[in-house]
């Protein structure tokens, strides 16, 4: 599942990493921020209070629902027969329900011939805190099979959770209503009474009554459709396999579909977007075929069909419901000539993510949410591998390290991070908070490390063993360890005294990750040591030990040579080394292991010299790793910042995207600190030097038909920096391309539109801004709308920015933006200081409208973003004035946090990091170069 936060995490900012980040991660991490540490501990301690007793096991649901959603009516009714296996004498039956009204109940005994015997109508009480309906039985039930029949009523929710109401505007501007579901993690109980825990798998038989102008679709194919006397239709579906109840899904709508009958796949969308479904259908078929072959357990051996649905309102971003995957429109629909290469990457990888869940999550499911990484880690890994297998020419797997591994190495370095296997309790927010970067990105990264220890055939056999051995059941770490142990047997040699269980547990049961320190004596040996890596400090008394697999490459080794895995199982060890003293070594080649590596200064400088003189001698992913590791090692005071900056300087010779993306993050951080400082010009010269030789080789406004995907990523990184640094040729080229679209109807290619629109606006006439705003109003493509929103926020004209911000709250234009787009507009102007100033002025006068439309959290987040972009005394005074204006409405903690952030920013130039960066910039005479010369100090 992917969960979405605010205004579209997929629609990447011009200077951020190209992250096809699972939207569920951002949403849940926002939720986590609302949970205080003390309350988290309390919730974890009380988890058992919220769990169902183990003696009640559901085996089957017969669910019937009636809805009049076609009119927009939120009321619905239904009934459910819950077949129960009572495993010990019992006088109470617990059933989950949230916000429903149970109107009647009947308890039956069920014999092996499926005959039912009425027992009694039960008294029950509601426990809203724990979301239980507790049924009391007059005479204790003996262990046996029973059926609890319940009639109930409910209202379609309006928060995109449970069984909820959404809508869209058709081609005539008429509002049409849709009833859809989102049950993960514990919201099936909000749609009908059930036993809502992942381990309680059961089969489901579903019928839905609806208006004949609408159709119902669910996990399984339609079994029958019958007209009712009232003119409505009842759609009955085939019975599902045994599955977790959160995977049940249905949709009642007037949507149309495209279909591949041979593959038994459909893609549903609103009628006025059905022409945008063809790519999702093609990609779905390709990816499913690839996964069938790779895993060796065909999907159709478990389920007869799989459908995909594009929804206008879906907070989860994407969801893997078995046989009925659901997505937000912008991460599924593809419109030729409009959809960008980045959006296509997101669409493809998210389909792969949800499709691999059909095995890892659906056929086998995490036993409890503490093992969520066993679902999401596999899905994160295979969203890149599965997409790559379907479209090998696009090199999707080459995005994994920069989009997943390096990203989570940053977040997992925090003191507050959690282990992969971890529980915060059984309440809605506690469970949702586990859908974070640890479950997704760390889970995928650690599984990648495990995968690369094995030959491909052995890993694939492990997958089959793991799935087949647990199919239609639930799994925990022990099940995974058992399958991996079998795969390792006779293939991977673990160090003495270490088994697979210890190896795996060291990674999944401990918070954080290590830094492997490699210190060469240059006397025939090395000292290897490990410590937990923190992003902001060095801790010398942390005794955490990981079982670390590592590879080592020596200068002159062939890059295609088979590297031997070696192991580190203690805090420190002395290792013999035969590498000549004047040659480098490289550890954790291609960043296969989930940890950072630090070297002694001599080895770092040998690596730097090779990067400058013979860049390709070091593997591409290792080059990206060296940039990323050195930057973060320097920020945590484990490495001299000058070494990291010297190494960063080699990228002027780099022509591959992954290393440039690692450099992009480092450059973005330093830019944020240097902007507004008196010697900012020195930083501009530094960046100009790094990008210069690459920039002159790029045509930044056109796209060749045979261009590689990674070349498109590289062009956007380089051209964004060139325009950001106000290189005249970049600003001129983007302005000219934008004006050709505005005046000559010569459209900008979607793959360069983000840069062209954003920076073309900086120097184009006012009519260009009006043109793009009109294009935004006329578009019903969610992906294009978000791109245009971001681009319009790049304007640097005060009047344009002011009018644009007013449009977010209505103003005189009364534009029909949804709440997500309104917030996105306010955030978009943060891309420049002119925009920040405009936002401050806007909030000063209109904060009450922002709170009423978007809520107090939106205002708090905007204020914190302004503080993050505050670097000078004048800017600090503007922030303080805003905080004083908002004093009556903004929580004191938010104001204090904003002031602290600004103070830290202002103090940065006098910090060790600030002084070292300025010293470095002053010492070197940066000029773009064409050869591999080393940076030279100014004479």
From TrEMBL:
ERAP1-like C-terminal domain segment(s): 584-886
Enzyme kind, highest EC tier: hydrolase
Protein name in the entry: Aminopeptidase
Source species: Anopheles merus (Mosquito)
GO BP terms: peptide catabolic process; proteolysis
Cofactor note: Binds 1 zinc ion per subunit.
Protein family (similarity comment): Belongs to the peptidase M1 family.
Keyword terms: Aminopeptidase, Cell membrane, Disulfide bond, Glycoprotein, GPI-anchor, Hydrolase, Lipoprotein, Membrane, Metal-binding, Metalloprotease, Protease, Signal, Signal-anchor, Transmembrane, Transmembrane helix, Zinc
Binding site for Zn(2+): 353, 357, 376
Superkingdom, natural source: Eukaryota
Leader peptide range in chain numbering: 1-21
SUPFAM superfamilies: Leukotriene A4 hydrolase N-terminal domain, Metalloproteases ('zincins'), catalytic domain
Ranges of residues in domain Aminopeptidase N-like N-terminal: 57-247
Cofactor entry: Zn(2+)
Topological category with respect to the lipid bilayer: Lipid-anchor; GPI-anchor; Single-pass type II membrane protein
Record has Cell division as a keyword: no
One of the record's GO cellular component terms: plasma membrane
InterPro entries: Aminopeptidase_N-like_N, Aminopeptidase_N-like_N_sf, ERAP1-like_C_dom, M1_APN-typ, Peptidase_M1, Peptidase_M1_aminopeptidases, Peptidase_M1_dom, Peptidase_M4/M1_CTD_sf
Domain Peptidase M1 membrane alanine aminopeptidase: 279-507
Annotated compartments: Cell membrane; Membrane
């Amino acid at each position: 599942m992917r969960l979405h936060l605010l205004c579209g995490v997929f629609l990447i900012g011009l200077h951020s990493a190209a992250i096809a980040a699972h939207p569920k991660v951002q949403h849940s991490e926002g939720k986590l921020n609302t949970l205080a540490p003390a309350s988290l501990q309390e919730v974890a301690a009380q988890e058992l209070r919220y769990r169902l007793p183990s003696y009640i096991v559901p085996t089957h649901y017969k669910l019937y629902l009636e809805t009049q959603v076609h009119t927009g009516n939120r009321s619905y009714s239904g009934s459910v027969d819950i077949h129960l296996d009572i495993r010990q004498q019992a006088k109470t039956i617990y059933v989950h329900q949230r916000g429903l009204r149970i109107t009647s109940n009947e308890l039956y005994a069920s014999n092996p011939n499926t005959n039912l015997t009425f027992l009694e109508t039960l008294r029950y009480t509601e426990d809203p805190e724990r979301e239980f309906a507790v049924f009391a039985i007059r005479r204790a039930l003996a262990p046996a099979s029973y059926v609890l029949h319940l009639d109930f009523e409910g209202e379609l929710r309006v928060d995109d959770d449970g069984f909820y109401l959404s809508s869209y505007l058709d081609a005539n501007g008429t509002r049409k209503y849709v009833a859809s579901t989102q049950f993960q993690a514990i919201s099936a109980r909000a749609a009908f009474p059930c036993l809502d825990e992942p381990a309680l798998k059961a089969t489901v038989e579903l019928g839905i009554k609806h208006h004949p102008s609408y159709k119902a679709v669910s996990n399984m194919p339609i079994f029958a459709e019958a007209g009712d006397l009232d003119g409505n239709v009842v759609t009955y579906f085939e019975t599902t396999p045994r599955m977790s109840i959160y995977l049940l899904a249905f949709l009642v709508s007037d949507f149309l579909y495209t279909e591949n009958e041979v593959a038994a796949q459909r893609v549903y969308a609103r009628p006025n977007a059905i022409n945008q479904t063809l790519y999702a259908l093609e990609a779905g078929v390709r990816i499913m075929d690839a996964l069938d072959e790779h895993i060796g357990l065909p999907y159709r051996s478990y389920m007869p069909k799989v459908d995909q649905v594009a929804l206008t309102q879906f907070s989860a971003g994407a969801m893997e419901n078995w046989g009925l995957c659901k997505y937000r429109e912008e991460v599924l629909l593809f419109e030729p000539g409009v959809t960008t290469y980045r959006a296509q990457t997101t669409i493809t990888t998210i389909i792969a993510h949800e499709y691999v869940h059909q095995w890892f999550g659906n056929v086998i499911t995490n036993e409890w949410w503490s093992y969520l990484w066993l679902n999401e880690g596999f899905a994160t890994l295979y969203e890149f591998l599965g997409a790559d297998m379907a479209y090998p020419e696009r090199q999707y797997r080459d995005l994994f390290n920069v989009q997943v591994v390096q990203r989570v190495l940053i977040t997992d370095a925090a003191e507050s991070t959690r282990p992969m296997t971890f529980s915060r309790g059984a309440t809605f927010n506690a469970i949702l908070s586990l859908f974070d970067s640890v479950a997704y990105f760390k889970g995928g990264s650690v599984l990648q490390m495990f995968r690369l220890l094995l030959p491909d055939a052995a890993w694939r056999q492990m997958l089959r063993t793991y799935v087949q051995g647990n199919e239609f059941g639930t799994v925990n770490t022990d099940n995974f360890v058992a399958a991996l142990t079998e795969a390792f047997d006779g293939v991977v040699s673990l160090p003495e005294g270490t088994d697979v269980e210890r190896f795996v547990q060291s990674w999944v049961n401990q918070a954080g990750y290590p830094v492997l320190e490699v210190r060469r004596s240059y006397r025939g040996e090395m000292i290897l040591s490990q410590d937990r890596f923190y992003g902001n400090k060095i801790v010398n008394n942390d005794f955490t030990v990981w079982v670390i697999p590592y590879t080592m490459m020596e200068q002159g080794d062939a890059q295609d040579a088979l590297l031997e895995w070696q192991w580190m199982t203690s805090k420190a060890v002395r290792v013999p080394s035969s590498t000549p003293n004047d040659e480098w070594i490289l550890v954790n080649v291609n960043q296969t292991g989930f940890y950072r590596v630090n070297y002694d200064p001599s080895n770092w400088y040998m690596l730097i010299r090779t990067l400058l003189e013979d860049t390709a001698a070091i593997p591409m992913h290792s080059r990206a790793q060296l940039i990323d590791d050195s930057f973060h090692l320097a920020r945590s005071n484990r490495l001299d910042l000058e070494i990291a900056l010297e190494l960063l300087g080699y990228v002027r010779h780099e022509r591959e995207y992954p290393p440039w993306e690692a450099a992009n993050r480092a450059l973005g951080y330093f830019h944020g600190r240097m902007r507004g400082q008196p010697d900012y010009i020195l930083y501009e010269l530094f960046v100009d030097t790094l990008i210069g030789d690459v920039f002159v080789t790029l045509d930044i406004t056109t796209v060749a038909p045979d261009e590689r995907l990674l070349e498109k990523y590289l062009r956007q990184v380089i051209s964004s920096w060139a325009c950001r640094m106000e290189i005249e040729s970049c600003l001129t080229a983007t302005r000219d391309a934008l004006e050709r679209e505005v005046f000559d109807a010569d459209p900008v290619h979607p793959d360069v539109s983000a840069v062209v629109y954003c920076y073309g606006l900086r120097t184009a006439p006012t009519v260009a801004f009006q043109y793009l705003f009109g294009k935004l109003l006329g578009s019903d493509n969610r992906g294009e709308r978000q791109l245009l929103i971001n681009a319009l926020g790049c304007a640097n004209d005060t009047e344009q920015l002011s009018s644009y911000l007013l449009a977010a709250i209505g103003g005189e234009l009364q534009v029909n933006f949804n709440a997500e787009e309104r917030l996105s507009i306010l955030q978009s102007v943060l891309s420049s200081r002119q925009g920040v100033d405009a936002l401050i002025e806007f909030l000063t006068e209109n904060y009450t409208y922002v709170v009423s439309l978007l809520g107090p959290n939106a205002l708090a987040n905007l204020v914190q973003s302004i503080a993050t972009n505050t670097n000078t005394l004048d800017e600090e005074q503007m922030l303080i004035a805003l905080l004083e204006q908002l004093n009556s409405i903004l929580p004191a903690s938010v104001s204090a946090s904003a002031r602290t952030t600004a103070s830290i920013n202002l103090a940065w130039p006098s910090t060790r990091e600030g002084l070292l960066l300025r010293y470095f910039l002053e010492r070197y005479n940066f000029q773009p170069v064409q050869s591999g010369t080393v940076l030279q100090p100014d004479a």
